[in-house]
C-alpha cells in the first residue's frame, strides 16, 4: 500500500540483498546526513533508470544517423557547417 512522503505517493516494496551490500549501505548511510537505506536504494535505482534512458536515446540517435541516405548525410553536414559558422560569428 502506498505511503505518503513529502506530498508524493510511495509504494512500499521488499527486496532481498546480499549481506555484503547491506553492510556497505550501512557504512555509507551515516555520511549521507539523514538518508535511509530506502532513500539510498531509491537514488541508486533512479540513477540506473536515468543512465538506461540515456543509453537508449544514444542508441536511437545512432540508428537514426546510420539510416540516413548519402544525400541526407550531405545535407546534414551542410546544416552543421552553417550552424557552426553562425555560432562562431555570434560568440566571437
User: Helical segment tally?
Assistant: 3
Specify the helix fraction band: 55-70%
Mean pLDDT comes to 91
**H and E order:** EEHHH
Q: In terms of structural class, how would the helical and strand content be classed?
A: mainly alpha
Query: Looking at the structure, what is the overall shape?
Result: elongated
Percentage of residues in strands: 5-15%
How many domains is the backbone divided into?
1
Number of strands: 2
End-to-end separation in angstroms reads 58 Å
Q: Quick recap of the structure?
A:
The chain has 92 residues and is mainly alpha-helical. It has helices at 19-28, 37-67, 70-91; strands at 3-5, 8-10.
Describe this structure in words.
The protein has 92 residues and is mainly alpha-helical. The chain has one domain. 68% of the residues lie in helices and 7% in strands. The chain has helices at residues 19-28, 37-67, 70-91; strands spanning 3-5, 8-10. It has a two-stranded antiparallel sheet with strand order 1-2. The N and C termini lie far apart (58 Å). The mean pLDDT is 91.
Secondary structure blueprint with pairings:
Blueprint: E1 3-5, E2 8-10, H1 19-28, H2 37-67, H3 70-91
Antiparallel strand pairs: 1-2
Summary tags:
3 helices, 7% strand
Amino acid at each position: 500500500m502506498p505511503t505518503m512522503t513529502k506530498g508524493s505517493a510511495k509504494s512500499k516494496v521488499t527486496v532481498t540483498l546480499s549481506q555484503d551490500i547491506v553492510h556497505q549501505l550501512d557504512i555509507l548511510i551515516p555520511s549521507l546526513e539523514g538518508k535511509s537505506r530506502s532513500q539510498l536504494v531509491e537514488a541508486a535505482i533512479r540513477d540506473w533508470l536515468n543512465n538506461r534512458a540515456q543509453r537508449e536515446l544514444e542508441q536511437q540517435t545512432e540508428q537514426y544517423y546510420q539510416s540516413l541516405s548519402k544525400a541526407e548525410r550531405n545535407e546534414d553536414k551542410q546544416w552543421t557547417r552553417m550552424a557552426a559558422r553562425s555560432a562562431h560569428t555570434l560568440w566571437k
